[in-house]
Amino acid sequence: MQATLEKAGNAPAIAFPKLALVKDERALVGAHMITAFSALAIGALLGPFQAFHRAPGFVEAFPDAAIPVFSYYYQALTAHGTLNALFFTFIFISGFSYFMTGRSLQRKLWSLPLAWVGFVSMLLGLLAMLYVLLTDPQRSAVLYTFYPPLIAPPLFYIGLVLLVLGCWITAANVIVTANLWRKEHKGEALPLAVFAAVANHWMFIVSSVGVAVEVVALLLPASLGLITRTDPQLSRVLFWFFGHPLVYYWLVPAYISIYTLLPNQTGVKLFSDPLARVAFLMLMIFALPTGVHHLFADPGVSEVNKAIHTFFTLLVAIPSFMTAFNIGATLEAAGRARGGRGLFGWMATLQWNDPVVAAQLIGLILFMMGGFSGLIQASAQLNITVHNTSWVPGHFHQTVGGIVALTYIGIAYWLVPMIRGRALFSKKMALAQVYTWGLGMMLFGHTMAESGLNGVPRRSLTGISPFLNEAAKFWLNGAAVAGVILLISVILLLINLGATLIGAPRPVTDAPTIDTRAPERVPAILNRWGVWVGILVALTLIAWLPVIAEALSVTEGFQILRWLPSGVPVP
Amino acid sequence: MHINRYERAWLTAVAVTLGVFAAAMLVGLLAFGIRLPSPVARVDPNNLANTPFAKPGLKSLGGARYELYATAKMWQFDAGREAGPLGVPPQIRIPARSEVTFYVTSLDVNHGFYIEDHSINLEVVPGQIARATVTFMQPGEYKIICNHYCGAGHQVMYGTVIVE
């Protein structure tokens, strides 16, 4: 047993596989990366300007300043949310999933043409969204949660449908490819990266059913004028059926990097591979029955259902704590191997001067802060004090804007050069970008949280609000300072990636090693996908059927399409 | 499956911590009576004539107990007779130490109903009645803020509770 373990542990890990794979992969992954970062470029550049316009101090000093191109505040806010949180992340996740699947499994995708169909679908979705945001700013300003009765033009929803269609194709492609590999490798467990990707895509498929029904059956027909009635509470329920799994859909690819690439990048083995698998499975099965914690303040969901989802929310915190230990232990080994001594000395010897490693480490620090603010929000009663205040965007800029975005950027710092065949334009610039991002998000998260505790609403042009107290104004001005730091960071990122693409002079030299084997000691039950997807579906039905029944008010007779205000309101 | 003994200890600590969280929420509910909104009833926002929302405002229930019906629309709250003309945010005067049950609904899109320094923070969803009970102890002025995006004028939608 010991011998096989060692053999598996020393299994060849490769950087560059067969040429055919490389050529197909370069085009496919490259197309995804360039499109994803183009979406981020627009979305992220708008962010700081929103922080400026939310700050009373800025509005007083520059009363005539406008947000570039997306000049209507809520248009810019909608663009910031949709382009960053939906288009950038989803397109990146598809490209990265294809890359990791191909490299880890040493195998072609199940269907390359289908992968391209998915890509084109997402690209068209992005163009549709940009077109509608630019040509119809007032009506398309429904934000990235698009709650009715605000109804956007049809193209807004068509863009989202095309995006999700692309994600479904990616999910099918990754899952089928993994199944084919398992048939070809009887008795072997999937490499951890692909295991996590499969769990993530299964979760996405099940959860996106909610938002698909909402958009296709309720919102798009209302936008096209085919129906004149809707139910806002039902829409919110269907959205959050999807909305919480969405955050894990963002997070798991970052975890794939941190669990499977960071150990190699820091020169050690992952502390525990099986417990990593347990964590990914827990994220998958508990992601759905927790969504009602976003609806704690809703009038149409009963306290009993809120309590049930609170229970599962506490359970879904466990995989994050498991990650804290597993990654903490891994990094401690890495730091000690590099000469770190004492209780905390190992932290200092990690590669803080390597942009790819630093991006992930700083992402983890931000995630600790965001994780705690998340637990506070998810505590049913504390939620009352922070719900719909700036606290919430403060939280998610340290999570999706923190660990997720920063880890994706760290991945881009080696993946884009690899695809382009040229080394990163400037490591120093990358390092400066990573640290300004970390500092900016820490300050932004804190100032937003403080302003939220002082009553500042989220998603509001507060720079001209008449109801702010002095403390609220102070913290909003602080958030604008964070905006300046983040603006610098975004510009550094775009210059660096742009210059790398145009053609940095030096050839690419380094890329992380990617594990192509799992340790052979993976417990058999962890490979039984039928069981885990079955549990996921069962927990989802148990937790959500009562909530949906309430929203439909089954006892009063089904009335799905209740009403719409006379004349669809323009936001 | 082998689990390292430090990791076992860590997971135990995590389980205890989350258990404490759950217990704290139960204490909040049972000992302090902090409740979350739960379904009250549905209304047709296009037809509120025969509901208490037809005449929003503060009603005394006797003693220090009151109920207040309020409506929200783009971009104004209506809390009854003390509401000013259009564009002037309403002021609600409430004696100190009174317990007020708020009933809020929307006439058009989703709104929020948040009062500074008090445990009330409601999603105001058209078609639904949102309800919460608050006791106002300290005299002072507290802003009612719409904290759910409701369109172009969202940032100026507020009211004031004056506790006397």
Any overview of this molecule?
The complex is a heterodimer of chains A (571) and B (164). Chain A is mostly helical. Chain A is 70% helix and 0% strand. Chain A has 18 helices and no strands. Chain A starts with a helix and ends in a 20-residue tail after the last helix. Chain B has 164 residues and is α+β, with helices and mostly antiparallel strands. Chain B folds into 2 domains: 1-35; 41-163, Sandwich (Immunoglobulin-like), CATH 2.60.40. Chain B is built from 1 helix and 10 strands. In chain B, the strands form 2 sheets. In chain B, strands 1, 2, 3, 5 and 8 form a 5-stranded mixed β-sheet that branches. Chain B has a 5-stranded mixed β-sheet with strand order 4-10-9-6-7, with no helix packed on it. In chain B, strand 6 and strand 7 form a beta hairpin. The termini of chain B are far apart. At the A-B interface, helix 8, helix 10, helix 11 and helix 14 of A face helix 1 and strand 7 of B.
Question: Which secondary structure elements does this structure contain, and how are they paired or packed?
Answer:
The complex is a heterodimer of chains A (571) and B (164).
Chain A: H1 2-9, H2 19-54, H3 56-61, H4 73-105, H5 112-135, H6 154-184, H7 192-224, H8 232-265, H9 273-286, H10 303-316, H11 318-337, H12 342-348, H13 355-378, H14 383-386, H15 391-420, H16 427-453, H17 470-503, H18 529-551
Helix pairs in contact in A: 2-4, 2-5, 2-15, 2-17, 4-5, 4-6, 5-6, 6-7, 7-8, 7-9, 8-9, 8-15, 8-18, 9-11, 9-18, 11-12, 13-15, 13-16, 15-16, 15-17, 16-17
Chain B: H1 5-30, E1 57-62, E2 65-73, E3 76-78, E4 91-94, E5 98-106, E6 111-115, E7 121-124, E8 130-136, E9 140-145, E10 158-163
Parallel strand pairs in B: 2-5, 4-10
Antiparallel strand pairs in B: 1-2, 2-3, 5-8, 6-7, 6-9, 9-10
